[in-house]
Backbone:
């Protein structure tokens, strides 16, 4: 009980601290209490959208990973399970290699095509995963694997054709927030918290699904609808995140496990804690990514795995008894 | 007060693609009885449980649960009346016993804070299945017998009047087999809960059940008091094994010992 009360107070404090850190540090150090006009410009038009984006994307990816792990009762599932990453990569690769113009004035072509690609991949995955009588969650999983592998080979062809643009593609694969703007931030601000709230609301149903479909159905859960809802929510969270920041690895796999190790597997606490922790973690990683090699930027995906994996391995080593 | 029957099954048939898995079953189960569902593998026991739970709809026939047609129940209302204990699930994630048992409260609200009634029901369910001392353990770390008690506690937390179990004694040592069945029997006697359980051991069925329901090839091969229905001839016909009945003492007159199939 004490442990629970502790984390309830810790979350807002951590978020506040991390936001302050994220806003203060960077190539130009800014004191939040004595700002010049340039400082304000940098703070509100560059850093604030960036910090917000990093928080939402980190939360979204971590939550999507937790959802897929719970839905498929599989601890090695992550946010990129249903072919979303391959679809987004294909869209981004097409935009970069063919220098496509953005169809939406305020958004970068890479973002728009990555989002389109991920939605296209999802449509394919659900088309092949569907059969008369509804969705089987495991057919959906296999269909995701198949579509993902196929699209990945198309991405490989694009990479071979890329030439000069290969570096831009690699940056997309490693993820980052250097092109964050208020426009993409607004989109994530509108969608990601909403999807997170819906996910948290139906957490009891997903808890019951952990015990098996028949137990869940016999307890009154409409399992088909819940599984479909969560598959769509997690896939959309990932699509939006990927189009804002490229492919950031490890968050969707590792953050949910860290939270489970520390606070247990009940999705009612797991989902909100995973969302906030994923957000906090990515804001910190992004702050590191833009300062350690300043003025150059490190792709944030590198930082997430360099920092996250050792912490994760440490937790496994020390909490092995609880892994069951 | 109580509906005449806990479950009333009339002319139920079920099958896929023309093949019949259950063929014209009819029986009625009184409240407060322990029913042993006995039959060889593939005889339709699990299919029958799913029909009784409302998870499968029969192709023809009707199931009445406590006086009301099963198909007319909303899923959550149904879950308040009939609960299911599946075979032991492999949990990928470490839920605690208390968390797992509290899932039984889902049909009664299940969202937001636990109500006082929920807390009482959970504590109560843990006590009735003799699992109170396990409440803070993680489910994955329990022994098979302890897991079974916890799964029964989850179903009890649903506050249902009818309990269906799929082989609750599977993988358990003899002591736990007896403990689990004794706990189920207490629910029938003390609280008039109706328990229907798949059992493979005819001796345990003889010892604990009030009625036996024999199923093979999707058809009903016998239904009635266990002392009348379970005998050498009926088990030979049902399972194709030779048993010798040995006279018992009190109200359970017979024990069954398998004969060596190789001796003539």
Residues:
């Amino acid at each position: 009980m004490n442990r629970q009360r502790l984390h309830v107070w810790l979350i807002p404090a951590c978020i506040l601290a991390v936001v302050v850190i994220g806003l203060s540090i960077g190539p130009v150090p800014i004191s939040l209490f004595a700002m010049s006009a340039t400082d304000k410009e940098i703070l509100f038009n560059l850093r604030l959208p960036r910090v917000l984006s990093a928080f939402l994307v980190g939360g979204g990816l971590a939550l999507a990973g937790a959802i897929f792990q719970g839905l498929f009762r599989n601890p090695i599932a992550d946010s990129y399970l249903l072919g979303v990453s391959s679809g987004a990569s294909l869209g981004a690769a097409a935009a970069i290699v063919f220098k496509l113009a953005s169809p939406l004035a305020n958004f970068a072509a890479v973002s728009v095509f990555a989002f389109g690609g991920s939605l296209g991949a999802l449509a394919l995955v659900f088309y092949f995963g569907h059969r008369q009588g509804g969705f089987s969650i495991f057919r959906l999983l296999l269909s995701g694997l198949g579509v993902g592998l196929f699209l990945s080979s198309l991405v490989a062809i694009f990479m071979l054709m890329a030439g000069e643009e290969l570096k831009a593609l690699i940056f997309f694969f490693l993820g980052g927030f250097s092109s964050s703007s208020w426009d993409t931030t607004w989109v994530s601000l509108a969608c990601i918290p909403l999807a997170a709230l819906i996910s948290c609301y139906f957490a009891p149903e997903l808890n019951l699904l952990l015990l098996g479909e028949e137990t869940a159905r016999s307890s009154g859960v409409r399992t088909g609808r819940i599984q479909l809802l969560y598959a769509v929510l997690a896939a959309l969270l990932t699509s939006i995140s990927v189009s804002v920041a490229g492919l950031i690895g490890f968050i969707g796999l590792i953050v949910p496990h860290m939270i489970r190790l520390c606070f247990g597997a009940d999705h009612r606490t797991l989902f909100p804690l995973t969302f906030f922790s994923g957000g906090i973690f990515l804001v910190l990683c992004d702050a590191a990514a833009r300062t350690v090699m300043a003025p150059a930027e490190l792709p944030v995906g590198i930082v997430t795995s360099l920092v996250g994996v050792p912490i994760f391995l440490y937790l496994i080593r020390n909490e092995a008894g609880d892994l069951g | 007060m109580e509906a005449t029957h806990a479950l009333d099954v009339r002319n139920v048939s079920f099958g896929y693609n023309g093949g019949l898995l259950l063929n014209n079953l009819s029986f009625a189960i009184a409240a407060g009885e322990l029913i042993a569902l006995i039959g060889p593998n593939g005889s339709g026991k699990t299919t029958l449980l799913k029909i009784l739970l409302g998870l499968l709809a029969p192709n023809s026939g009707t199931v009445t649960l406590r006086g009301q047609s099963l198909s007319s129940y909303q899923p959550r209302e149904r879950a308040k009346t009939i609960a299911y204990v599946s075979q032991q699930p492999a949990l990928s994630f470490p839920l605690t016993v208390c968390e797992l048992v509290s899932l039984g409260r889902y049909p009664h609200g299940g969202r937001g804070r636990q109500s006082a009634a929920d807390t009482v029901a959970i504590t109560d369910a843990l006590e009735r299945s003799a699992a109170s001392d396990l409440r803070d353990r993680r489910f994955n770390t329990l022994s098979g017998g302890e897991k079974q008690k916890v799964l029964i506690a989850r179903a009890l937390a649903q506050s249902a009047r009818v309990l269906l179990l799929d082989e609750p004694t599977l993988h358990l040592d003899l002591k736990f087999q007896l403990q689990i069945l004794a706990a189920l029997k207490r629910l029938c006697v003390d609280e008039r809960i109706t328990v229907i359980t798949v059992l493979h051991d005819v001796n345990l069925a003889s010892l604990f059940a009030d009625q036996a329901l024999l199923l093979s090839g999707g058809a009903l091969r016998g239904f009635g008091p266990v002392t009348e229905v379970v005998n050498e001839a009926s088990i030979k016909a049902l399972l194709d094994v030779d048993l010798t009945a040995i006279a018992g003492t009190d109200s359970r007159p017979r024990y069954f010992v398998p004969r060596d199939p190789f001796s003539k």
